[in-house]
From TrEMBL:
<feature type="domain" description="F-box associated beta-propeller type 3">
    <location>
        <begin position="2"/>
        <end position="190"/>
    </location>
</feature>
<dbReference type="InterPro" id="IPR017451">
    <property type="entry name" value="F-box-assoc_interact_dom"/>
</dbReference>
<keyword id="KW-0472">Membrane</keyword>
<keyword id="KW-1133">Transmembrane helix</keyword>
<keyword id="KW-0812">Transmembrane</keyword>
<dbReference type="InterPro" id="IPR050796">
    <property type="entry name" value="SCF_F-box_component"/>
</dbReference>
<feature type="transmembrane region" description="Helical">
    <location>
        <begin position="200"/>
        <end position="221"/>
    </location>
</feature>
<dbReference type="Pfam" id="PF08268">
    <property type="entry name" value="FBA_3"/>
</dbReference>
<protein>
    <recommendedName>
        <fullName>F-box associated beta-propeller type 3 domain-containing protein</fullName>
    </recommendedName>
</protein>
<dbReference type="InterPro" id="IPR013187">
    <property type="entry name" value="F-box-assoc_dom_typ3"/>
</dbReference>
Length: 260
């Protein structure tokens, strides 16, 4: 799902099997996940609380019976320090944004904040204080938004929340928008490239994005040089479920076990 400070959070598609793993030390810990009857998890986030020196997993669930939503969304937070889960109050003003039948995308940890892709905007979650914030409205007014196409997941661009959009005019142009310190969206630059990328997944730093072309696969894109380069995978890998930005570290958590 995500990587943070050398730790990788792994999950199955239903978010009921969750594991924190350090590929460098070959140590891991499988979390004991709350399992309430009829609950369906719709979101999973992973990040670091630098004040409490704690790694945390955020999980959003809803109760579903006979294919219908029967409850408001509930937030569950795991603390690696406490090795426990606790319920987090979801404010009334963001419940509708999180009440969706689809899984909600959760962005990377950006300065101690996770951002969830809710209806009508992004829902921030403060990992330090364990609280949800006000909905961050997406870059464009509704009448303009309808003429734009979102082309990225939630990105961390040089420490700022960022999104990539494509204009829907006669000349389609990809543009990177960032959220500044006062909550305003600013167009940073256009992304001009020799090969169109259908989706942007990560900003890797050093001028490089990682994107996907539905025909030619994953590509590195250098926004300064405006060049693309194929991301090679071992020949035996025929399907890639997800990609994360990973930095090696020796971080270890209480309860880590060694891989066999």
């Amino acid at each position: 799902m995500r990587s943070c400070n050398g730790l990788v959070c792994l999950s199955n598609e239903s978010y009921y099997v969750i594991c924190i793993w350090n590929p460098c030390t070959r140590q891991y810990k499988r979390l004991s996940v709350p399992n309430y009857a009829h609950n369906v998890a719709i979101c999973l986030g992973f990040g670091f609380d630098c004040i409490g020196n704690d790694y945390k997993v955020l999980r959003i669930v809803r109760k579903v019976i006979r294919g219908r939503d029967m409850s408001e969304p509930e937030a569950q937070l795991y603390s690696a320090n406490a090795d426990t889960w606790k319920k987090i109050q979801v404010p009334d003003n963001i419940k509708d944004s999180l009440s969706t039948k689809l899984k909600i995308l959760c962005g990377p940890d950006i300065s101690g904040m996770l951002y969830l892709g809710g209806e009508g905007g992004l829902v921030p979650f403060d990992l330090r204080n364990n609280v949800f914030g006000e909905i961050v409205v997406l870059p464009f007014p509704k009448h303009v938004q309808e003429k734009r196409i979102k082309k990225s997941k939630i990105l961390n661009f040089e420490g700022s929340l960022a999104m990539v959009y494509e204009s829907a005019g006669d000349e389609s142009v990809l543009s990177l928008w960032i959220l500044d310190d006062v909550g305003l969206w600013i167009k940073k630059f256009n992304l001009e490239m020799e090969l169109e990328l259908d989706r942007m997944y990560l900003y890797l730093g050093a001028q490089h994005f990682l994107g996907l072309n539905f025909v030619f696969g994953y590509k590195f894109y250098n926004y300064k040089k405006k060049t693309t380069k194929k991301l090679p995978f071992p020949a035996h890998l025929t399907d890639v479920n997800s990609v994360v930005k990973f930095t090696e570290s020796l971080v270890s958590l209480e309860g880590f076990k060694s891989q066999e």
